[in-house]
Amino acid sequence: MVNLLKKVINTKTVTIIIGLLLVVMVCLWWYSRPNKASVAASEVATIAKDIQKLYAKKANYWMLNTESLKSNDILTKYRYKNNQLINALGKPILIGKGENGDIVMPGEKSFDVVYTDLSFAECINVASYQFEQQETLGLLQITIIGPEKSRIFEWSATDYALPISRPEAKLFCGNKAKVIWTFE
Predict the structure, then answer these.
(1) Does 56 share its domain with 24?
(2) What is the mean pLDDT of each successive set of 10 residues along the chain, which is 184 residues long?
(3) Residues contacting 31, CB < 8 A, separation 6+
(4) CA gap 45, 88 in Å, rounded
(5) CATH number, domain at 111?
(6) 95 and 51 in contact (C-beta within 8 Å)?
(7) Total structural domains in the chain?
(8) pLDDT tens across 156-176, in order?
(9) CA separation for the pair 15, 72 (Å, rounded)
(10) Residue 89 carries which DSSP code?
(11) Same-domain check for residues 113 and 27
(12) How many Å is the Cα radius of gyration of the chain?
């Protein structure tokens, strides 16, 4: 009877230890996987670099917009849903000038990458993302357009300067927000 009791206790102990190890492993896996908002934000830099390479030998970004890039098969390596360019969050991406991704006009030496329909949390995460090698990106400004108010953040600004902090992003983000990155 004593031996049987010891076997049951040992089996329960081993089962508990294995269970705890599995829980720890799942938690480590969960927290080590990339955050979708971080992936989406880093895609902005990749898109900007690809566009800058494409237009490197041109005087400006004339005629650039999402449709012109799609029709020339420039953005084939990115995600699409219903023939629309989307980011890692599954939200639309617009490229061009301004919040609607209009065609860049002659003489314009900058372009915008726009993420639309962002939730409050997504907006905060992508707007406050800290790019690696920011100085080589040619990032001029980031604009947050929330449901009630908007704000432009620039490197040289005294108020609301780049990079954007999470508390600053919270002031302007909301549901259905847009974040616009302007590159040279």
Answers:
(1) no
(2) 57 65 58 68 88 88 86 70 84 93 90 95 93 79 92 89 91 94 94
(3) none
(4) 13
(5) 3.30.1690.10
(6) yes
(7) 2
(8) 888 888 889 999 999 999 999
(9) 59
(10) T
(11) no
(12) 23
